[in-house]
Every structure is written in C-alpha cells, then in structure tokens.
Amino acid sequence: MSVSKMTTATVLQAKGKKKLTMLTAYDYPMAKIFDQSKIDILLVGDSMGNVFYGFNSTVPVTLDQIIDHCQAVANGAKSYSLLVGDMPFGSFGVSTKQTVENAARILKKGNVHAVKLEGGTARVKEIKACIDIGIPVMGHLGLTPQSINKFGGFKVQGRTAEMAEFLLSEALALEKAGCFAIVLEAIPWQIAKVITEKLKVPTIGIGAGVHCDGQVLVWQDAFGLFDDFTPKFVKKFLDLSEVIKKGVADYKNEVENKTFPDTTSHSYSIPDEELKNFLENMEKKESKKLKDFV
C-alpha cells in the first residue's frame, strides 16, 4: 500500500493490508525527521507532560500547550504523516459544546488533521458532535493516562473476563460513534487481538501486543531520551542519551582545551589588507588619546 499523504481514509484502508506506524512528536525537527521517514501517524500527545515538561502525569497539560506543539509539528511534517492532536484533561467531558469548540481550536490553530480523545461510551455524544462538523476523532481505551487518579496509577486494564467484555463493548461503541481508529493501551494481547478482529476500524496498540493494526510509542521512550520510568511495553530502539552525552563531553573538552573553534573551519576572517588598516587606525587613535591625556 503506497500513498503520497496519509489521511484518515488511508488509515482506515490500511486495516488488514499494512501495519500502521505511529510516534509522538512535539517539535519541528523531530516531526520533520519522522515525516521524512514515513511514519504514518504523528501524535502530538499529552505525554509531553512527562517527557517534555517533566510533570508527574499528563493531567497538567493545557489546551494552549497542545496547540503550540501542534503548530510546531505541522511546520515540520508536511509531506506524508497524518497529524493528530491530543485533547488534554479538562478540554472535554464538561459539555459537548465545549468539547467541540476545543477540538475545533486544535484543528484550526494547531493545523493538524484529527484529534484523539480518551474514553468510551461516556464520550460518544461528544465524539459524534465533533465528527458531525467534520472533526475526525481517534479513540483511546484501556489505560487512559488522564484517568490515573481514578485508576490509582498506571495499571494494566482488562485482566478479568468482565473487564475484557467491557473493553470490547467500549471499542464497538467508539467505532459506531465514528472514530477512524482506536488506541488500545496496556491491555492483554489476547483481548487486543479479539477487539482488533471484531472492529472494522484500525487499532493502534501501545502495550497491547502484536495483533493490533498498528503500534505507537512515545519517541523519547523508544529512542532513549526518557528514563524516569520505563513501562514494560517500551523497547529502546536507540540510546540517544548516550550519543548526546558523548557529544556534550566532546564539546566541553574541545572548548576547554581551545581546539574548538579553530581559525579556519569554524571562524570567520577579515581580508589581510582590511585587518592591517583596522590595526593601524586603532593604533593611531590610541596614540592620539595618549597625547591628549599628557
């Protein structure tokens, strides 16, 4: 399956044909790299609360912060990736009107293509209202980080038959409401497999096993730039922290030992004749000042 630009339609068409790749992105340079690498979906996630701002959870992230980061990502990812902006805690769930207004702000000001919204049947009315005015919505079930205060921490969801049935019913409700894809986070792989097979829309797994239609990771987790905590589902594909530490050490060493910058490769020069004139003029002025002083 080859496309020039990912859309919600091509995400839907990918089910059963290709595995979707999704990464978080929060800034221009990384978004540009991911877009050029043809990552299918970039999520401007409220995970920025942890990995970008150093909060203990995603709850403090504001709508304005999401929008600012969406703008940066949109500037970097212009050729391939579908861009999704997270709806942060408090931006939905209060009233349908407020949810639609906030989702519209993310699309209009953030310049992304869709929003992601946590929750199941309780959010169906809001999801439908967004979709009715042309705002595509990605769902999110299982461990929903904005609800950690309710869950009592980051805990795997769906480990009982009753909870597994509940997750399936929630997923079907989101599909019926019109979500073009659903993130399944931290649920047993067997349950994610059943849900994926039952749904006509793609599932994007994060700690939900290989049978989902795609996978998502927080990029700082995947590439070694966040180690405050590491969930079981994270695989470190590269340890950028060690690469950066070496670069910082080399920089510090060269500055302290006066090998950087050198006078040719990393410095600008003035033509010899101009330098000569400058030094002569400076010397004349200093000599005049000395005579005036005497």
Please provide a written account of the structure.
The protein is an alpha/beta fold. The chain folds into 2 domains: 8-239, Phosphoenolpyruvate-binding domains (TIM Barrel); 245-293. The protein has helices at residues 8-14, 28-36, 48-51, 63-76, 96-110, 124-132, 148-151, 161-177, 189-198, 219-222, 240-256, 272-293; strands at residues 20-24, 41-44, 82-86, 114-118, 137-142, 181-185, 203-206, 214-217. Helix 5 (96-110) links the parallel strand 3 (82-86) and strand 4 (114-118). Helix 2 crosses helix 4 (63-76). The mean pLDDT is 93.
Outline the fold blueprint.
Blueprint (H helix, E strand, L loop, with lengths): L7 H7 L5 E5 L3 H9 L4 E4 L3 H4 L11 H14 L5 E5 L9 H15 L3 E5 L5 H9 L4 E6 L5 H4 L9 H17 L3 E5 L3 H10 L4 E4 L7 E4 L1 H4 L17 H17 L15 H22 L1
Helix pairs in contact: 2-4, 4-5, 5-6, 8-9
Task: Give a summary of the structure in a few sentences.
This protein is α/β, with parallel strands linked by helices. It has helices at 8-14, 28-36, 48-51, 63-76, 96-110, 124-132, 148-151, 161-177, 189-198, 219-222, 240-256, 272-293; strands at residues 20-24, 41-44, 82-86, 114-118, 137-142, 181-185, 203-206, 214-217. Helix 2 crosses helix 4 and helix 4 packs parallel to helix 5.
Count of DSSP-assigned helices: 12
The helical percent reads: 40-55%
Terminal CA distance: 86 Å
Net shape: elongated
Helix and strand composition category: alpha/beta
Supply the number of structural domains: 2
Proportion of residues in extended strands: 5-15%
Assigned CATH architecture of the largest domain = Alpha-Beta Barrel
What are the low-pLDDT stretches, counting only 5+ consecutive residues below 50?
none
Query: Using only CA atoms, what is the Rg?
Result: 26 Å
Strand arrangement across the biggest beta sheet: 1-2-3-4-5-6-7-8
Oligomer: single chain
Biggest β-sheet, characterized? 8 strands, parallel, barrel
- Name of the CATH superfamily of the largest domain: Phosphoenolpyruvate-binding domains
Give me the count of strands. Answer: 8
